[in-house]
Design a protein that fits this description.
By secondary structure, the protein is mainly alpha-helical. The chain is built from 14 helices and 2 strands. Pfam families: CobD_Cbib.
Length: about 325
């Protein structure tokens, strides 16, 4: 088994067992503290944002990749463990599904509490939302965050880990470093870079913040493939291949160039309406999600996440073998 596959398996096991570390010790939260000072008036806000968008994710990637490479230089298995820990810290599935289930349950027992808890999933004013609209937000959030929180960093890890298997022939990275360790280090750096870009977008990427223009545009580009891959995974988990094509009908109703794919696929697979007041209305002729609909969406996104991990493990395993035989 390749070290990259070990790292993917470890990340899955840690997510299943632990969910996420507390915010106070989470490296992504630490990175957020580096980003926070950017949220202020600037003489040239777009330039400031662009420079930070280049520098900060690169710092995150080099730091994580360097730590994994250093651990692997000591012991290759230690590199795999460090890579798996990095991947675990840059991805999220269990916590997402857990919060979604909590909010869904509260919509039937305590709507005010459901509106309050929704803040952990969706950044919108929930004070006037009906129970169905809260559940709609839950379904939208779990589908969109499958792409942002799992598929994007996991995909970056896989692609760069496979590319890393080519490094010995290219004479790249660090002389004398085990090629399998180099692959894990490069994959971990890629996952950290994607997570950093997404974090900057989530903190700064609003129309009201000119400094967030560059993070938002870069995040749009980075998320192009993960959003569409997530739609395919959701369709597979729902046994509804046609739902991806159906989602195309509503793409022009969603401001984001990417989030409409997983959200529209879920809407089509479940036959429900997803609406963010004042922003978009997907499948407006269908009913808003019931609690059972929202639970089904959570289960299907969970299964789609499992398929993503399974695919990542298979690609890293086969990829390492192909380059070893070559």
């Amino acid at each position: 088994m390749s070290l990259s596959t070990v790292a993917v398996g470890l990340a899955l096991a840690l997510d299943a067992a632990l969910g996420e570390p507390p915010t106070r010790v989470h490296p992504v939260a630490w990175f957020g503290r580096l980003v926070a000072p950017l949220d202020r008036p600037w003489t040239r806000p777009r330039l400031a944002g662009a420079l930070a968008t280049v520098a900060l994710p690169l710092v995150a990637a080099l730091t994580v990749g360097g730590v994994v490479a250093a651990a692997g230089a000591w012991r290759p298995l230690a590199g795999a463990v460090a890579g798996g820990l990095a991947l675990f810290l840059t991805t999220s599935l269990r916590r997402l599904l857990s919060v979604a289930r909590e909010v869904t349950a509260l919509t039937e027992t305590d709507l005010d509490a459901a509106r309050a808890e929704l803040r952990a999933l969706a950044g919108r004013d929930a004070a006037a939302l009906s129970a169905g609209e809260v559940r709609s937000a839950v379904v939208e959030s779990v589908s969109e965050n499958l792409a942002d929180g799992l598929v994007a960093p996991l995909g970056a890890f896989v692609v760069l880990a496979v590319v890393g298997a080519l490094l010995p022939s290219a004479g790249a990275l660090r002389p004398g470093l085990d090629p399998a360790v180099a692959a894990v280090a490069l994959g971990a750096a890629g996952a950290a870079w994607v997570k950093a870009v997404n974090t900057m977008d989530s903190m700064l990427g609003y129309r009201s913040k000119p400094v967030g223009w560059a993070p938002a545009r870069l995040d749009d580009a980075v998320m192009w493939a993960p959003a569409r891959a997530s739609a395919v995974l959701i369709a597979a988990a729902s046994l509804s291949p046609g739902s991806v094509l159906a989602a195309r009908r509503w793409l022009d109703r969603v401001p984001s160039p990417n989030s409409g794919w997983p959200m529209g696929t879920v809407a089509a697979a479940l036959g429900v309406r997803l609406v963010k007041p004042g922003a978009y209305d997907i499948d407006a002729d269908a009913p808003l999600p019931t609690a059972d609909d929202a639970e089904r969406a959570v289960r299907r996104v969970g299964l789609a996440g499992g398929l993503a991990y399974l695919g990542a493990g298979a690609v890293t395993y086969v990829g390492a073998g192909v380059f070893t035989w070559a």
